[in-house]
Amino acid sequence: MSRLSEIGYGCFSGLLLVMFSCTSAPRRKRADNDEPQSQKLEISPGGFPEVMVRFDDTSISCQIDTGSLRSKVPLRGRFKSYRQQVGGESAESEIEIKNVLLGGMNFFDRKVQVKKVRDSIFPSEGDCIVGLDLLSEAVLSFDFKKSEFKIVEEFPPGITGERLGMSSKLHFGVPVQIGESEYAAVWSTGVSMLSVPKVLIEKHKSDFEPIEKGETDLYRTRNVKVAGHVVPVFTSKQYAFPDIGGVNPETPVIGMSLIKNFNWLIDVDGRRWAVY
The dihedral of CA 169, 124, 102, 255: what is its sign? Predict the structure, then answer.
């Protein structure tokens, strides 16, 4: 049984969305050879990764958000024609997607839930979000140099990877060094920059140079290092806030300003990661 068969998820409320829930096996299968095994990885104007995802016979551009536990699709267009039924503890309407094709992998029999979610939750760049309910089931390959994304069964030969830290049920993280201090930081493609809680900035003021004050303060950091690599200066403009929902308030979050500088392999279920 996959980890997702054993995990339940919460839901949002506001604008109409379709949200994934878990069902029993079969769960997934490698796509046929005539299907592309890798996908074009686009970076949206807001700096977030996007790929095309096919839900049955409907393809839509989706933001890959490893900080989101749930995948979400707006209930409009073709999705409105699905037969709805009441299901789940929340008694919300559900529809069933027979096949989701993402990164060269087919995900089968995904029930989706009709919910209302606030407009502000939806990314302005894309029409849907692919979250950890799908992304945690196999090894994710982000090749930012070639602008390619794919899902594979295992790490390539010769790459063993390092232990992936888990900050909550599915949120995961890797070490990051800022100044002279090292932290276990959440790895999230749904965040634009390195996010550092104010409590850590207060503890290590010498590592942060304020450059702009406002609702969200901006800082320039010194000597940022990820996976043993020093991050170039142009990624050093950071923001900070006191807490990130559901995450330890002293946990930094590695966002796209750092992530996009490297190629990554992420295996949430196997709890491994590598930079290549």
Answer: negative
pLDDT in tens, 252-266: 888 898 899 899 999
The pLDDT, as a whole number, for residue 43 is: 93
Q: Which residue has the higher pLDDT, 243 or 157?
A: 157
Q: Could you give the number of structural domains in the chain?
A: 2
Structural domain ending residue among the three candidates 93, 119, 152? 152
Nearest to 26 by CA among 137, 132, 153: 137
Give CA–CA dist 135/109, Å, rounded: 16
Tokens read off for 128: 């849907």
* Model confidence pTM above 0.70: yes
Q: How many CB atoms lie within 10 A of CB 210?
A: 12
Question: Which residues are paired to 186 by β-bridges?
Answer: 173, 253
Question: Which residue range is the domain that position 195 belongs to?
Answer: 162-275
Rounded distance between C-alpha atoms, residue 20 and residue 59, angstroms: 16
